[in-house]
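Reviewer 2 asked us to include a model.

Predict the structure of this chain.
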Amino acid sequence: MLVELRVENLLLIERAELRLAPGLNVLTGETGAGKTVLANALDLLLGGRSRAGIVRPGAHEAYVEGVFELPPGMAEGLGGPLSELLGAGDGLQERELVLARRVRSDGRTRALVNGRTAAVGDLRALGSALLRFYAQHEHRSLTLAGAQLAILDSRCGPEQAGRLRACADAHGRVRELERSLEQLEATRAGRDRELELLEFEIAEIDELAPDPEEHERMLATRERLRSLDSLLAAGGAAAGWLLGEDASGGAPGGGGDDGPGAAQLVAQASGALAGVEGVDPALDALAERLRALALETRELGYELGGYCEHAADGGRELAGGSSSWTLEELEERLGAVERLVRKHGGTIEAVHEYGRTARVLRDELSAARASAGGVEQQLKSARGDLERQVRGLRKARRAAAGPFAQDVSAQLATLAMPHACFEVELSGCEPSGDGADAVEFLIAPNPGVPGGPVREIASGGELSRVMLAILSVAQGREAGITLVFDEVDAGIGGHTARAVGTRLRELARGCQVVCITHLPQIASLAERHFSIVKQAGPQETLTEVRELAEEEVVEELTRMLGAEGGQDGARRHAEALMRAA
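Predicted model (structure tokens):
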């Protein structure tokens, strides 16, 4: 519970110190006296955002400090990341925790936990475990579907938190897979086009399989084939000159083919020397050489004729070429290779390097195509898991809705709404991290009047009582916490105000309650009563907060009833309220 609250230089408060009782504590004062300043102080203590001008004019900084007495078992429950911050010192051993916040006039703040510097987030974490703060018009949060769902979930037992985490994880997994699949689908058309192009280019490279050495041979062969006519003319002419009229069919070029060729003339010359063979050794040596020349000349003429015949048949295997190509075939293949070279880097080596890169990219794109199918299967499984989590949450909510509605209706009966009928309506909605249930709180305030959603049917005063009834039901499961209400009693009065006050006091039997109120019916039921008074001076205006003694409580109640202390009727009414408490 909150044992002490100290406030310095916050708005109109120069210095205030409140020592709070375990039960119901009330703060009262004239409108504009600064009651909500204390609400601002508690908001800062819980890690709320500081706003400009919150430091009292003339002061360098504002300071808020709250001393909490931890209920049994809560100290151990504050472990985890906060355990190092709290340490193992006197604070936890004495079950006392001190939260503080300094706010400088330039807007910078500093958070403290047991005297140690901490983050504002640490104040939020610790403060939320120790105190619940319900500001003005907080009851209107009951009209929000999200708030109603959270309230119902709080009645589903401690296991519901685990179910909610599991559902949030399952929903997050589904959304992640949906985004992945959307990205894959968005790039599928482009990916398929690129994959098709890569397959074509790889097939083109594999089909041609260009080789640098073969390429050089083909270039040389092409040059020879391009010069075929010249080669045939030269070879035929040479054969004609050698063989003359003996050249078979007359070799192309036909030089000297109408008379004896060089081979015949050499043979005749050799025959001229045959008649004197053996007379002169020197001449015999020359005759031998002449006979050999005659044979060589005739053989060379025949070979030249064979060359021309072969070339005329198609020009295959020219000059010892290892491949048989026609000029047309060579031109076609060389053109294909040269186009490939121009497209992929300028050299045959670059073509093969591109082929290797293209195969790697093709494999990656093929894997991405297969991945889309895998993601679809994963998404199907994840949606099935989400559906199971949704069913678990729905089952727990349906089981809790009836008893919760009955308990709230019973509490409303004690809050001057004896005939009110409260119900919880569950309907389906799109799955989210909270499940697939939409919750609507329904109320029929009076018999014979059709019920409807709380947000449409209940008045401001009824909303306040519905919230109080819900808190009363929920608080039985969360004892030991401090509840702070900032004028939650707005819109009510008379017997209803007394019923609300009684309910607050009953609520305070299980936990500490602090209530900022303007109703004497509620203030008269307090264990401890604090008055907030604004004092206007010539230079500045200050707000004073002090605890009231019993006689001072009567005076304050009289003021709240709209009379001065000297009016006996109002005073007797105040005293009657005190006695009835």
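Residues 348-413 form the longest helix (66 residues). Residues 164-390 form one domain. We have added this to the supplementary material.
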